[in-house]
Write a structure and sequence with these properties.
The chain has 304 residues and is an alpha/beta fold. It has helices at 2-15, 53-66, 98-105, 125-134, 139-146, 150-156, 164-174, 195-198, 203-214, 247-264, 285-289, 294-303, and strands at 19-22, 32-35, 39-47, 69-77, 80-81, 86-90, 93-96, 112-115, 118-123, 161-163, 179-180, 218-221, 228-232, 237-243, 267-271, 281-283. Strands 1, 2, 3, 4, 5, 6, 7, 8, 9, 10 and 11 form an eleven-stranded mixed beta sheet that branches. Strands 12-13-14-15-16 form a five-stranded mixed beta sheet, sandwiched between helices.
Length: 304
Amino acid sequence: MKAELVSRLLGILHDEGFRTSDCSGTRSCFDILAKKREILLIKALGNIEAFSRINAMELANLAELLNAVPLVIGEQMKSARLSTGVIYSRYEVHVINAETFGDILRDRMPFIHSVRGNYCVRIDSQLLGRLRRGLDLTQEELATELGVSKQSIHRYENSGRISLDIANRLMDFLHEEIRIPGGIAEDEIHQVSGGILERNLTSLKKTVLREFQSIGLSSQATNAPFDILSLENSHEKRILSIVSDDGRRIGIKVEMLTEASEIIGGYRVCISNRRQDADILIMKPDELAEIKDAEEFVRILTRS
């Protein structure tokens, strides 16, 4: 089921001109990396109940670091199918089905959001106020027409989200479209601490993370095709690093890292005690320890 969904999503993205990388074959907080104008980090799930709070933290944190859009695309929630044209939310990450995703990429934005099991929409609250005044109605008079309280009308004119039922009743009465279409990049996702990942790192990854930070790189462990994402602050250079002594897996990870770095943009490096042929700079931990600062590290990466 998941493989079919990933294949379908890759097809949708390719049709819309996105560059993509299929990361579903490795342990990662996302299954598809895509970029056109903005970077998308997509987790594909048959049932979104499998998306945990920790998964959401990992995905949202990486999206913040990459200035990307985190997104879960699924087929059902518990035993019910996800509805087309509805934006759901799980642990503050947007969730949609494949049909809605395709519509959004074609600029057909959905209006409806599902919030704690209830359908609601965003409205142009200022337009609502102007339309009411244009009909020479007080808030209390409009409330009477709709069968709601005056306080509710006041809230509708000062906030941007109301229930779908009330929105439909308002539009039937006003004969105007007051809904505002939603999107997948509109809400701010707050960065969370990377400590939850760092507690489970191998000793080699902990050592490399400390070395990166000691030379002045802003670095965090990630659950992605790359193990550590670093930023060289003075030039805003991204550095994507594999950190592993597993010779069997390095080749596969290097291939995926190459795709990811070409889409995201940035340098790539592998820190390992093993020497092997690979289309990437492989540096031993003791060589990393000899580097004085971030600028020297970037010069080495530039020459490789």
